[in-house]
Each structure stands twice: as C-alpha cells, then as structure tokens.
Fold:
Amino acid sequence: MTATMTDTPPPAAPKADTERGRSGRSTGQILMIVAGALLLVAAVRVITGSDQLTSEGQVSAALGLAVPIGLAGLAGLWSERSGVVNIGLEGMMILGTFGAGWIGWQSNPWLGLLCGVGFGVLGGLVHAVATITFGVDHIISGVAVNLLALGTTQYLAKLFFSEGKAADAGGNPKQSPPVDSLPNIDVPGLSDGLKSLENHHWFLISDIAGILGGLVTDLSVVTLFAMLLFVGSWWLLWRTPFGLRLRSCGENPIAAESLGVNVYKYKYVAVAVSGGLAGLGGAFLALVTSHTYLENQTGGRGYIGLAAMIFGNWRPGGLAMGAGLFGYSDALQLRNGGDTVHALLLLLVVLLMGLAGWKLYKKAHWQGGISLMVAALVLVWYLVTDEVPSDFVGATPYVVTLLVLSLSAQRLRMPKADGMRYRKGQGK
Structure:
C-alpha cells in the first residue's frame, strides 16, 4: 500500500501469471510447516506445563476472535486486488456493528446480520465513489470513511437507543438493547471424544485433539459462513475469468482496458464486496461476540485485518493464517493472562534462533546477529521471571502484529497498481 498517489504506469506486454511461482508454496511444504509448528508448540506446552496453549477453550476463543479480523483482511484483499487501497475497513466494520445491533434487536439476528452487511456495502460505495470516480487519494478517503462512520454511528445511537422502547429494553446512547443469539453448532460425538483425548495431556496427540476440538465445538453459524467465504474468494479470484479480470485491474488497469475489461465496474464491485465483508465482520462482533452494539466495539480490528492481509501476501490462505495468529494471541491475553503469555516467550526464543540461523546461512550476518541478541534477551527475561506483567499482556496482540509484519516484510509482493489513480482511456 502507498499513501502517495501516482499515475498508473504505461501498459506493459501481457505476461503469464507467475505469482504463485514467486511466492506460493507447495502442499508438501505447507504441511511440513504446520507439522513443525505443532511439534514446537507441543514441546513448549510440555516444558512449561502450560496446558492452556493448545486447549479446546483456547482454540475456540482464538477462532471467535480471528473471524472478524479475517473478514476485515478478506475485505482488504478484495479491494486491493482491484487496485484500491482500503484504509476505511475500520469504519465499515463500525457501520456493520451498528446496522446489526439496530435491526437485530427490533426484528431478529438474521435480518440484523444482513443489515450489517448492507451498511458495510454503503461504506464501501462511499469509498469507491471518492477514489474511483473522483480520484481522491485512497488513504485520505479511507481515513474520512473511518471518521464519518464513527461520527454517524455515535449520532444515530443517541437518536435511536437513548429513549422510548429501546431505552426500556436496555439501550443507552452507547449501546443497543440486547439481540437474540444466532445458533451454534457442535459435531455430535466428535467433540466429546476429542475432549477426552485432550485431558490425557499426551505429547502431540492431546495437543492435536485440543486444537481440533476447538474447531468443532460450539461453532457459530457465522464462523462456518466465514470459512466458506475464504474458500469461495480463493476460487472466484484465482480460478475464474471474473477473478482474472478483477486482479488485472490491480496489476495494470490500462492493459486490462485494452483487452476490453470495464475497469471502473470491476473496481466498484470489488470495493462494494470489500465493504460488505467488513460489515459482516462488524456484525459478527455485535451479534456473536457480545449480542449487542457497543460504541468503539471494533477496537482497531480493521487495521489488524489489514496487517493480516499484508502478512498473507494478499492471498486468502496466508491471510487466514495471519488472522488465526492474531486471534490466538488476543485469546491468550484475554483468557489466561501473564502465565500463558510467559510460556510463549520460550516459543519466541526458538523462533528467533531459527530466524538467526537462516539469516546467517544466507550470509545476512548483521540481521542474524540482531536476531541472536534479541533471542538471548528474551531467554533471560523468561528465566528470571514467572509471568509477564499485566500491562504487557494487554499489548500482546499488537506486539505480535508488529513482529509478524517486520519478519515478513521482505517477501511481500503487493498488486503493482495498488493505490494508483486510474482514468478511463488513459492508455490511448
């Protein structure tokens, strides 16, 4: 992403889509990474005795916290793949929380969910009109959407929730009345069996059981729908002619236009879908997490979603892993406090030492030395303390965000025309 608007570069000769070859990984490599991560976490759990690291409750909480972040990141992916930077995701999520809470308490949560998506789409269309039609700088427009959404929802909450039936039902200027719950789903038989395996605390076996148990126990229907959206977005954007045209608008819109693609239409569709996905993430917070609209409910998740999207290199699979990581770190500090976060220090030491070894192997001696030094400092911190201070525990998700972005920055490849001004007929 870039805050400086420049003209779209001149058209280049069409090239084959080699992005997967540059940045993708084979299925075998991904499975090896996942297996290595499981072994490492299981070893840390056994050494530290912190069984909550892979417990069913921890994974279930992490999944619930990861869904709105993942939906915000997926919203950013749709927009930026078309060449429109969307800093306004936070505002679109705020609109989604209000729409879901406002309609949800008056009718039913299903209509509230649809209204949350609709409010997000409206926010996306405002951003689209500003950036695509009028050529406003994408960053400025996104910030304006965030401010507009915050001010509008605060005003409407005071207007609709502070008196009358809403006030009698428990509403006030900062929150809506309670909304009925959406259904949750368990997998019969499987949940209990995995819980039994987890309670034995066997190395790796119990860890896998705890992780799988968190993924099949007490799942919201919105969580399942979000998973389908990730798969559907991957298929639509990378396996269909529609997706190829949309991504071409973010790579070289002039070349796309020369081949007959209506660039404006595809950008509008992408940003509207982006707003709807962000609104769905906000509706999840209002209807699933808290069952009510609350002022400042999003808590910066739109920005963390952008960080997850960047970590995932503008691809759904990496984005899902990034959202899961941020949700997991957030769940740790909410559920278990300093003891479990302290156990993660040992995991951080191992990761930093592995990074140092890789940098030294690649002859990057300066970066490898810094990684070793930081690993040594973290190890000393782990050895001389029993828990992490509460002030640092609350900052865990944001520290993880900064670390992940700093460690993954060198392999990123954003769409070439992301954030650039485009005008129809520019290549003529």
Notes: The chain is about 70% helix and 0% strand. The CA atoms of residues 197 and 272 lie 45 Å apart. Residues 263-289 form the longest helix (27 residues). The longest strand covers residues 184-185.
